[in-house]
Amino acid sequence: MSEKSKDSVTEDLARLFGVTAEELTRLFVLSEEQLMELNEVEFRARMRERCHHTLEIPTYESAYFGTPLPADQTETVEKMLRVWDRRGLSHELVEYRFATTILGYAKKRIAGEPVDLSVHEPKWLTPEEQEVFERVIYQRRTVRQWDLKRYVDDELIDKVLKAGLWGPHGCNLQSIRYMVIREDVEPGLFEGSDVPGGPVHVVVMQDRRCYDANKLMPPFNLLLDCGAATQNIVLAAHAYGLGGCWLTFSDVMRERLIKHYSIPEHYDVVTYVDMGWPDQSPCPIWRCGVEEAVVYRSLPNKKK
Ligand SMILES: Cc1cc2nc3c(=O)[nH]c(=O)nc-3n(C[C@H](O)[C@H](O)[C@H](O)COP(=O)(O)O)c2cc1C
């Protein structure tokens, strides 16, 4: 694989997004002064996106294939790190930690040194652990009745919310935001739901300002980001012994919440999960088989 010039990478990306190279540059290549003017949420999201596209992906590709990494590959992230300090942002924030780690790898590749990613290799599941994983997937049920005598601690809720944040998401934009509302403290806000309100309502929102960091994001990806987070939430709730019900807002309910909490316009109030200690073991809704679901499959490559 040959070393790709920055221009040809820009042209490839522009083609992918269906815009001109000039438009792509206008949207993504900001001066330090322009970066200083952004609100902090968008700036941090840009740091995540830029680090992902301009540094992480090319550095790993270079490390994997042993191809050279151009010396100017680090320019974008180094500029953003300068702005990071000018803005007085903390070095403890995840974007800074990630950017400086990847920058370290990139500098090694630029110097022609190998990058050892084996320290990040996951601890692969044993066959017994795989069975536990399958139990979580296949025994999770949507639960709609709760043991209200048992309190759900905030620490446990936070473990579930953390799992949501670790879902995959487009361009590393990390837009997911939550509201955690206890029915016994603030009753009635979820009236109109087709199931009795869970003791804990987790509202899953997205900060649309994160998407200002990539205005070319395919629209589907926004909802998919949220779906991936919410899927992790219901799985984690089950893994920690809680019951969860993924729920749909009616317009009336959504508007009620927006009004009650004065939720700012830049938050999309997308979906919610009711959670609590389960008081119900519903029958599995059996799924159709894989053979029915797969509508096309390549023939096996007999040459291999
Ligand atoms: C996007 C989405 C919206 C849902 N909305 C509701 C809802 O409004 N009310 C409800 O009772 N269940 C809702 N559910 C739960 C589904 O009914 C449930 O996942 C489905 O029947 C399969 O059952 P299981 O989760 O127990 O496997 C929703 C699930 C998803 C993924």
Name the poorly predicted regions: none
Q: Which structural class do the helices and strands define?
A: alpha+beta
Q: In CATH's first tier, which class of the largest domain applies?
A: Alpha Beta
Q: What is the CATH superfamily classification of the largest domain?
A: NADH Oxidase
- CA radius of gyration is 23 Å
What does the model show?
It is globular and about 60 Å long. The protein is 47% helix and 10% strand. It has two domains: 6-110, no CATH class; 127-276, 3-Layer(aba) Sandwich (NADH Oxidase). The longest helix is centred in the first third of the chain and has 26 residues, at 40-65. It is of the alpha+beta class and 304 residues long. A four-stranded antiparallel sheet has the order 1-2-4-3, covered by helices on one side. Helix 8 (154-165) runs antiparallel to helix 9. The structure holds flavin mononucleotide. The site of flavin mononucleotide (FMN) has 9 residues, from strand 3.
